[in-house]
Amino acid sequence: MNTELDTAELGEKIVKVLKTIFDPEIPVDIYELGLIYDVFVNEDSEVKILMTLTTPNCPVAETLPLEVEEKVKSLDMVKDAEVEITFDPPWSQDLMSEEAKLELGML
User: Fold this and answer.
1) How many CB atoms lie within 10 A of CB 58?
2) How far apart are CA 28 and CA 32, in angstroms?
3) Of 42, 45, 79, 92, which is the most buried if we count CB atoms within 10 A?
4) Which segments constitute the MIP18 family-like domain (predicted)?
């Protein structure tokens, strides 16, 4: 079994799940918004997600990381998931994908 392939495949599945989670204030998913800084998957299928929020006092600061954790943990291949919030670097509109900018009429 090729673990490299498995972690890449799992990474893609995680991204798909992240794309189902939306920021309540902006009608764009958190992945396209650029809120996900990094996804780490180790050989034991434990996932660590480094993410930010649009603002430190974001109304979903408590619930959004939990939702991310629970949805990622719900994947069969995932043994455990942990979300770490960072504000370094702080989120800015530059981190949004072209798709998100288009969606919000910024292009």
Assistant:
1) 18
2) 7
3) 45
4) 12-85
Tell me which residue has tokens 């794309």: 19
Extended beta strands in 9-100, E state: 36-41, 46-51, 80-85
Plot region of 67 (φ>0 → left; ψ -120 to 50 → alpha; else → beta): alpha
Kindly report the number of other CB atoms within 10 A of residue 62's CB atom: 8
For 95, the token pair is 């981190």
pLDDT mean by block of 10 residues, the chain; 107 residues:
72 96 89 96 94 89 94 95 96 95 91
Tell me which CATH homologous superfamily contains domain 3-94: Fe-S cluster assembly (FSCA) (3.30.300.130)
Say how far apart CA 71 and CA 45 lie, in whole Å: 15
Q: Is 94 strand, coil or helix?
A: helix
**Closest C-alpha among 37, 36, 45 to residue 7:** 45
